[in-house]
C-alpha cells in the first residue's frame, strides 16, 4: 500500500519492519501503532522469520506519541493506552529484535529501543525522556527502559528531560553500540546474521531465561536450570545442533543465503 506507514518484508530469515512516517518524525500515530503491531504479530507467527529488524526512514527513528492526536482527548481515549501492547510484543518476541537507529528517538521511541534485544545507533542520534517537559510522565516506557539503565542515569534523565547522545546511551545501557553512519548497516547486519545462527527454540527460551527473576543464590536455582539445560541437550533441536557440530556443517535451522 502506497499510504502504509509501516513496511514489512522477509529475506534470509530476517523480518525487516520499517517505520515510514517521516512527515511527523515517525510519531506513534493510531495508524502507525496499528500497522506496527500487525507487523510484529506477523513476524512472531511466521516460521520463516528467525530475527526481526526494527528500522526507519527519514532523519528520526521515532518521536514518541503523536501529540496532535493526544490533544483534547480524555484519558480513556489516549493513544498511549495501546502502546503497552507494542512494547510487550517487542519485549516478549520469541525472535530476537534488533533496533537500527540512523537518527534520534524521544519518549515512546526510546521505550521501543529499550524493548528490543539489541540496539545500534549512529553518533548523531540523540535521546531524551521529554515527558516531564510537557507535563506528563514516562510511566509506560519505564517498564522497558528501567531494566536497561543504571539507576543514577535513570533518575537524572527521567527527571530533567535533558537530551543525551548515543555515546552516553551506550554507557548507561540503552544501546549496545554507537557506530559511524557508514558502518551502521554493516554492524546491524553482523548482529542479525549472528542471531540467525542460534536454534529458534533455544533463542526463545534464552530470552525467557534473561527475563526471569534471579534466585537469591545460585544454589537455589541449579535444580530448575539443570532440568531446563538437560531438556534442551536431549531435544530434537539440541541433538541436531550437536550432530551438525560433529559433522562440521550448519544446523538445519540456519537460513540459506
Structure description:
The protein has 257 residues and is α/β, with parallel strands linked by helices. It is 46% helix and 14% strand. The protein has eleven helices and nine strands. It has helices spanning 30-45, 67-70, 83-92, 108-115, 139-145, 151-160, 166-171, 181-196, 200-211, 218-234, 236-246, and strands at residues 6-11, 14-19, 51-56, 97-101, 105-106, 118-121, 126-128, 164-165, 177-178. It has a six-stranded mixed beta sheet, with helices on both faces. Helix 1 packs parallel to helix 3 (83-92) and helix 3 packs parallel to helix 4 (108-115). The longest helix has 17 residues, at 218-234. It is globular, with a radius of gyration of 19 Å. This is Enoyl-CoA hydratase family protein. InterPro entries: ClpP/crotonase-like_dom_sf, Enoyl-CoA_hydra/iso, Enoyl-CoA_hydra_C, Enoyl-CoA_Hydratase/Isomerase. Belongs to the enoyl-CoA hydratase/isomerase family.
